From TrEMBL:
Domain of life, per lineage: Bacteria
Record-annotated membrane-spanning stretches: 34-56
Entry keyword set: Membrane, Transmembrane, Transmembrane helix
Organism expressing this protein natively: Rhodospira trueperi
Organism lineage: Bacteria, Pseudomonadati, Pseudomonadota, Alphaproteobacteria, Rhodospirillales
Protein name: Uncharacterized protein
Length: 57
């Protein structure tokens, strides 16, 4: 797995963990959709970049 896809996956995972733990930490109301978008977008982009790396070689 290349480093770019690992970074995107890690960012997406951290955002989703913060979103799930929102009831424990104070997160501003406007940050919830941003965390959701960046979380799922980061995971999907990381998986796509990894798949593209496998295809291209």
């Amino acid at each position: 797995m290349n480093s770019g896809s690992m970074i995107l996956l890690a960012i997406g995972t951290v955002c989703l963990v913060v979103l799930v733990g929102e009831h424990l930490w104070h997160v501003p109301r406007w940050l919830t959709p941003v965390l959701l978008f960046v979380g799922f977008g980061g995971i999907l982009a990381g998986m796509g970049w990894f798949a593209l790396g496998l295809i291209v070689g």
